[in-house]
Amino acid sequence: MYGRHHGPYDSAYGGSHRSGTDPVRVIRASLAGTPRRPAPDSTLALVSDLIWAHAAPSQGLEHLRARASGEGMDVYLFLRSASEAAALDTACAILAGARSPLVSHGYRAAAPHHR
Fold first, then answer.
1. How far apart are CA 75 and CA 57, in angstroms?
2. Residue 113 within a domain
3. What was the pLDDT predicted at 38?
4. Tens digits of per-residue pLDDT, 66-89?
5. How many domains does the chain have?
6. 114 in a domain, yes or no?
7. Who wins on pLDDT, 1 or 87?
8. How does pLDDT run across 38-56, given as a tens digit for each residue?
9. Spatial distance between the Cα atoms of 58 and 3, rounded to a whole number of angstroms
10. Can you give the CATH number for the domain in which 25 is found?
11. What residue numbers bound the domain in which 9 lies?
């Protein structure tokens, strides 16, 4: 499941343009899987590394954060993007590129979804 995160990051990172660049937008991706509860830090780091390894510099990924959830984990992608729709498309592309290694570690991204 992908969606715009509605929480404390909205005002801090989704604000105005800085120095003529696009603002950072936060997209949440829910990864379903059968994690050990709670997901160990090493698993969260592994998933983060897999996503970073499959993101191109041109996709504008500035930061990401993975957190364990009841059904797997939530990944927050901080993307520099001109619009919410473009950020969502980019998040989908990044996760599609990382699909095979994520699946090999027991995770899959749900279908795209706007909140």
1. 18
2. no
3. 57
4. 998 877 889 999 999 999 999 999
5. 1
6. no
7. 87
8. 567 888 899 999 999 999 9
9. 21
10. 3.30.70
11. 2-108
Instruction: Give the model's pLDDT for residue 68.
Output: 85
Nearest to 108 by CA among 86, 78, 75: 75
| pTM of this structure | 0.75
- Does the CA dihedral 30-107-57-65 come out positive or negative? positive
- Which helix (H) or strand (E) is 44 found in, with range? helix 41-53
Q: Which residues of 63-80 are buried (b: 16+ CB within 10 A; e: fewer)?
A: ebebebbeebbbbbbbbb
Q: How many angstroms separate the CA atoms of 63 and 40, rounded?
A: 20
Q: Per the domain annotation, does 94 fall within a domain?
A: yes
Written as one string, the DSSP assignment of 11-27 is HHHSSS-BTTBPPEEEE
DSSP letter assigned to residue 9: H
